């Protein structure tokens, strides 16, 4: 994950301090990010712990879109880092906010990636 102090202009110091007792640091914090889709606020909580980078993104009115999650990923993770969302079995599902999605990145290993041919042509217009 990026050094989160680089996002201090988006940091929500008041709410984070009230909820968590701290405004955060270079690895953690709460942020208010204007959506690239409609300008509405995406609340982002970022942290590092137990071998993981973790970012949650939520909106008051709906879940973030793919475009908004990509915006959050680009803001909070370094260019060369891969982060992912998990779709767990129903019995492992935890939902404490109905409009929240998560991005994860393990600190100790590379995320396996499928072969590109299974995803689609790498270049636009390629067959």
What would your notes on this structure say?
The chain has one domain (4-108): Streptococcus thermophilus LMG 18311 protein like (3-Layer(aba) Sandwich). By secondary structure, the protein is of the alpha+beta class. The model has no long low-confidence stretch (mean pLDDT 93). The chain is 18% helix and 23% strand. It has a four-stranded antiparallel β-sheet with strand order 1-2-3-4.
Strand order of the largest sheet: 1-2-3-4
Determine and state the CATH class: Alpha Beta
Kindly state the percentage of residues in helix: 10-25%
User: What structural class do the secondary elements suggest?
Assistant: alpha+beta
Instruction: Give the CA-CA distance, first to last residue.
Output: 35 Å
Q: Main β-sheet, in a few words?
A: 4 strands, antiparallel
Element order: H for helix, E for strand: HEEEHEH
Q: What Rg, in angstroms, do the CA atoms define? A: 16 Å
Total individual domains: 1
Count the beta strands. 4
- Mean pLDDT metric: 93
According to CATH, the fold-level topology is Streptococcus thermophilus LMG 18311 protein like
**How is the quaternary structure best described?**
single chain
Low-confidence stretches: none
User: Which CATH-level-2 architecture?
Assistant: 3-Layer(aba) Sandwich
Shape estimate: globular
Beta-strand proportion? 15-25%
């Amino acid at each position: 994950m990026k050094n989160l102090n680089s996002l201090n202009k988006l940091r929500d110091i008041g709410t984070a301090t009230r909820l968590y007792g701290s405004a955060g640091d270079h690895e953690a914090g709460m942020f208010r990010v204007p959506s690239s889709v409609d300008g509405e606020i995406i609340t982002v909580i970022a942290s590092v712990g137990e071998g993981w980078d973790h970012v949650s993104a939520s909106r008051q009115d709906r879940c973030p879109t793919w475009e908004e999650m990509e915006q959050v990923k680009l803001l909070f993770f370094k260019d060369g880092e891969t982060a992912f969302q998990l779709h767990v079995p129903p019995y492992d599902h935890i939902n404490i906010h109905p409009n929240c999605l998560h991005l994860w990145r393990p600190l100790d290993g590379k995320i396996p990636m499928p072969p590109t041919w299974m995803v689609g042509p790498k270049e636009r217009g390629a067959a």
